[in-house]
Amino acid sequence: MRGGRAIILLYLLFLMLPIYWLINMSFKTNTEITSVMTLWPHTLTFDNYKKIFTDPSWYNGYINSLKYVILNTILSVGFALPAAYAFSRYRFLGDKHLFFWLLSNRMAPPAVFALPFFNLYSAIGLFDTPWAVALAHCLFNVPLAVWILEGFMSGVPREIDETAAIDGYSFPRFFLKIFTPLIASGIGVAAFFCFMFSWVELLLARTLTSVNAKPIAATMTRTVSAAGMDWGVLAAAGVLTLIPGALVIWFVRNYIAKGFALGRV
Amino acid sequence: MSIVLEGVGKDVGGETHLDGISMALENGSLNVLLGATLAGKTSLMRLMAGLDAPTRGRILVDGVDVTGQPVQRRNVAMVYQQFINYPSMTVYENIASPLRVSGRGAEVDAKVRRAAALLKLEPYLTRKPLELSGGQQQRTAIARALVKDAGLVLLDEPLANLDYKLREELREELPRIFAESGAVFVYATTEPSEALLLGGSTATLHQGRVTQFGPTPEVYRRPQDLVTAQVFSDPPLNVVSARKAAGQVTLEGGAPIPAAGVFASAPDGDYAVGFRAHHLSLEPAGERPIALPATVSVVEITGSESYVHLEAGQNRFVALVPGVRRLDPGSLLTVYLEPRRLYLFDRAGRAVAADVALAA
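Above: the input entities. Below: the structure tokens describing the complete assembly.
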């Protein structure tokens, strides 16, 4: 038992070390970071965070990212709900193939789509808007949301739909009042994954924006070359980037467990 | 409300699930759909409810054709074998939901409380269905069907997933609960004994066809054909072939005997003879019993009765005899049949003769 505990502690240590180091760095001055290796900040500073919260070129990155991520989450779940319902309830020609094809969209590397999206969005004036990235991310988030939601929906007996129809519920009313509460955890899980994938995706987000909608990840990578090595600010930006994901995870942690139990996540 | 089916049939993916079903269900009647699993009971109920549209035929409600009408516009209620409730609503809201949808706001509370009282759900109204036992969940579903005052109440094996005690209790209550509503009441079951206990009328279903529809005791006592008798028999109907010639009858494996009982009026020829398990006895009884040699294969003792499984040549029989019988498997014995307590079917399976008073 003691050996097992030691291994787990060691594992956790290795797991948490990079995150700790990032937080550690974000509270140091650049001189301390580059000159000596210290396990905790000897000259504690909040200047790095202050810079991010006051410099528009930094905090706009977060706002831009959040804009397209939230847009994308709403779009993906909104499109996926009716699609997943259809896949879970109806048999139609080629339904299984279509379902698989949706999934196969996730298998293509985003780089493949970067060029056509860039050209298309430039042509119709969507380039450098949150919509450009939000729509592009639907490419892999809609299939994912359909896949997750279909699993949850198939867990709801079809007889509930029928009982509601017999009771006199119209379809929209049934869907909102009866069906949605039953798959609430599925919607939570799907939204979480859409949020996360959109939040961490860099390639499409960077290709489809230039100035007005530049996401935080792009800001970070571009600053490295432009402003020299501002390690402290970069670390602070990294810490702030982790926060939304951590917050969302905190809210949906119970649902995720349920999602795993249903075997779809 | 009365409901009439006219030559109704349903095909699914090129397969015929139901065919040629014509029946009229009267206002306030209790109708049992009796048939084995996959006989088409649920499919037929779904057509009656309007959940599915029939491939052929028409469905009339109070003389009006409702064949293509969606289920929301029909006045039906349905209870499934699985306990189907809305898990996110309380028991109270579950029962109230059909009333809320139809906008009958004023009487909701009184109606819900009356239904809950009738089904003994009052202590659980604030709970969620999944926190209740199976019996209580099904009571909730029944209460929801009841509160709607539907003209057609469909119960699809509502008691099949309940334990024995609850089943007995609810089976007694159900017809009474719905009796005053004046609704057409359709009850699907696989168990002949349940049909007999419920009474009313019975339609026997076999492979998607209604083989006979009439008052329950009548269908039980006077089946029109072999299939109906088999469907309406538990333990399974014993069947043995027989030949009548020159005033003599020979049952397969037995000695020729004078043609008496049901055989007396039948013309010469080949027949299938059916008899129920409790009419096969291990001692000679009644007038001129027919004797057949048989081998014991298994004896099941239920407590006050014994099921004796027998082999007689090619045929397998079950005898339901009173008391505890300890018979060794493999032992030889003679079983007896009364000629009056038999059903006689011709080669096509149609009933030829049965002594109505005694064959039951």
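Note for the figure: Chain A touches chain B at residues 157, 159-160, 162-170, 173, 178, 181-182 (CB under 8 Å).
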